[in-house]
Design brief:
By secondary structure, the protein is α+β, with helices and mostly antiparallel strands. It has 2 domains: 239 residues, QueA-like (3-Layer(aba) Sandwich); 73 residues, QueA-like (Thrombin, subunit H). The protein has 6 helices and 15 strands. Strand 7 and strand 8 form a beta hairpin. The chain is globular, with a radius of gyration of 20 Å.
Length: 331
Amino acid sequence: MPFKSKILDYHLPPESINQNPYKDPNNSRLLIANTREIITFDNLPSIINKPSLFILNKSTVQNVRVKTNKLTGGSIEIFFLEILEDKIAKCLIKSSDKKHLNKHYNLKIFDFEIININNDTFHIKTSLKIEEILSKHGKTPLPPYIEDDKHKYKYYNNQFSDGGFSVASPTAGLHFTNDLIERLKKDGHKFVYINLDVNIDTFKPVTSEYLDQHNIHEEKYRVLESDFNKILKAKEVGIDIYCVGTTSLRTIETVYLTKNLSGKTDYFIFPDTKINIPDYLITNFHAPKSSLLSIVSAIYGNAWIELYKHALDSDMKFLSFGDAVLFEVNE
């Protein structure tokens, strides 16, 4: 039987969405699903079995939002989704004028032409190299539900981020400072870093009646063979494996099932999908109707609804700058 999308819905009060990042991520909170205990991330090392292996997504959020003005007047915002060539990119365009194929724009900081249109996304050819545009004029793309403020930008990337091209943060990693990672390493825990470039569709809610009708987003990923072998070895000898974030879980499950260490994944984890690799998942609280809640449902069943209510009643904070929950994956 197909799953109706309404099973991923719940009421999220606006005041429970954390608008401001934790200045010290060690103070962010973690709800342990099985016991309902709430701890701070500073105390995470005390509850982790030794040794364990953590899988983190190291992809970096790029400064992909460019706001400027047209020479003819009027503002324009270009949201770069993907760099295809030095001067060709896939993007969103926000401006009041009508957009059509071959339209040319003269902006204050560069010029561009629309060379392809696919629904609400555009391929553009720019007069300057896109990396130059982003390095000089790009801003951090905070999620649409967070009030824009430049003072928040530096908190939206993981401290361990390295390479990659994400337009949204793999936010479970925001709780893991480099200091916390070093403490866990000193306790004998191992870390593996994968790369999945998070795209903007991660915020897109499921609007179809049934989950299998949802066109889930496709994202680029890469895992080193040596790192995947470490994960398989840990699984073989019974070392606990923690996926930090749904992006890490989705990536490693894709590699396990397809045997492809790199490529693009559009893997939709439904509520009845078997999870093969991790023993635990640490993830933030997700938005209503999010496809990521389907992963939570696959791990925790319908009890996630009552768990989320408990988190709300406990004044835990939700979404990108919010708190997190630790699930045990019961195979």
